[in-house]
Amino acid sequence: MKIRRHSESHIVELEDGSTWRVFPGDLDVTLNWRPETDLKLVRIDDDVSSHALINYGDNSRVRVLPMSENWPVKEVKTMLKDG
To answer: Model-level pTM?
Structure first.
């Protein structure tokens, strides 16, 4: 699946129209994404995220939530603090 819009580093809209929030600790991974980047959306079992976007080109991944959901602030702060 290709990227339709990625004008803000923490929000990605895919060509199917779905919009996703990127986990704050994974933002650096998205810096090289281009409209032609081929991504796969997968369901994951993670403490803060329900899905991940995997870049077919380099096999990198970012944790994401649907745009309608918000990150659990306490858990995110803990994860970012602990590295």
So the answer is: 0.86
